[in-house]
UniProtKB/TrEMBL annotation:
InterPro entries: CB, DNA_brk_join_enz, Integrase-like_cat_sf, Integrase_catalytic, Integrase_recombinase_N, Tyrosine_recombinase_XerCD
Residue ranges constituting the Core-binding (CB) domain according to the UniProt record: 59-138
CDD domains: INT_Rci_Hp1_C
Keywords in alphabetical order: DNA integration, DNA recombination, DNA-binding
Species of origin: Bradyrhizobium erythrophlei
PROSITE patterns attached to this UniProt entry: CB, TYR_RECOMBINASE
Annotated ranges, domain Tyr recombinase: 161-327
Gene Ontology MF terms: DNA binding
A family per Pfam: Phage_integrase
GO biological process, one term: DNA recombination
PANTHER family: INTEGRASE_RECOMBINASE HI_1414-RELATED, PHAGE INTEGRASE-RELATED
Protein name: Site-specific recombinase XerD
């Protein structure tokens, strides 16, 4: 905030704002001083003035990471994975740097070092919360950072778009391998994922009070985009859920996310699935919904997509099916 006072035969203007270096200048005319003060206030609003290095010298990157992990990440649905990632990041020497000394060049060196052991897509996933951390620090915590040091960091990651669908015989091998699992919940989880197109976390979080078999509907309260949705159930989904609900209250699947992840990895190796991921069952289900003749709004109601462009990324009709339709249209 600017202050103007008469000092001898001059008008002295001082500007003080939290996180910025104090500014002062003298003028012969008061109106010139007031005009300069307005210009400096505008620059301050635009983050164009020098930051207060003393404030940044008191804070290390580790201080921000710990605060972000314990106050922001903890509120996220994917907190456990992000907590592990951020805690591991704290052991890197870059976290001992003070914010006054931290530059994009430091993260470029970190990027180059990490790329020797991890893929670009994995590194991007690790850096996403760090990038968001600086945005929160700048805009919500009042940390006087002029810009985000990760904002100009270049990291080219290949597209994660997948077109993997079940090949002939793979579904049978998946079920056969699932029946060999010691955990009895693996097979119904996999069957339900394909019958509904639900995400892994949505399936694992299911409870009995979300299901209405009479109306053939299922309420998904916690979703990736934060919007609850009610989906219609296929005959197969009703059959699976009917068996699971017999005499059960509360959670349908008493298994942790990590336990299921490990079980799936063993199953995938046993069934010789190659690069088939569990999330590909969602791709398969959505593609099958379209092949059944459902239109995009109807499929979006089931999948939960609010952006049609994202929905179509999950849609991979089998080429054989397209060829059959083309042949029928010309016969």
């Amino acid at each position: 905030m600017a202050s103007i006072r008469k000092h001898r035969d001059k008008w002295q203007v001082r500007i003080r704002r939290a996180g910025l270096q104090p500014l002062s200048k003298s003028f012969s005319l008061r109106k010139d001083g007031a005009e300069w003060a307005r210009q400096m206030e505008v620059k301050a609003d635009r983050a164009e003035l020098p930051t207060d290095l003393k404030a940044l010298q008191r804070i290390t990157l580790a201080d921000l990471v710990v605060r972000y992990r314990d106050t922001v990440s903890v509120k996220k649905r994917g907190y456990e994975n992000e907590r592990i990632s951020l805690t591991a990041f704290l052991h890197h020497p870059i976290c001992s740097k003070r914010l006054s000394d931290l530059r994009t060049e430091d993260f470029a060196a970190y990027r180059d070092q990490m790329l020797q052991t991890v893929k670009p897509t994995s590194l991007k996933r690790y850096l996403d919360p760090i990038h968001n951390l600086f945005e929160v620090a700048r805009h919500e915590w009042g940390v006087p950072l002029r810009d985000n040091p990760l904002g100009r960091l270049k990291l080219k990651a290949p597209s994660q778009r997948r077109e993997r669908r079940l090949l002939s015989g793979e579904w049978e091998r998946i079920l056969e391998a699932a029946r060999l699992c010691r955990n009895p919940w693996i097979e119904p989880i996999i069957r339900l994922a394909l019958a509904t197109g639900m995400r892994r976390g949505e399936v694992l979080a299911l409870e009995d009070n979300q299901i209405d078999l009479e109306r053939r509907s299922l309420l998904i309260r916690k979703t990736k985009n934060g919007h609850a949705r009610t989906i219609p159930l296929t005959v197969e989904a009703v059959r699976i859920l009917g068996q699971l609900l017999r005499g059960r209250l509360g959670p349908l699947f008493p298994i942790t996310r990590n336990a299921f992840r490990l079980a799936w990895e063993r199953l995938r190796e046993r069934a010789d699935l190659g690069d088939f991921h569990f999330h590909d069952l969602r791709h398969e289900a959505i593609s099958r919904f379209f092949e059944l003749g459902l239109n995009p709004p109807e499929v979006a109601l089931i999948s939960g997509h609010r952006d049609m462009r994202q929905l179509f990324r999950y849609t991979h009709p089998l080429r054989e099916g397209i060829i059959d339709k083309m042949d029928r249209s010309t016969s």
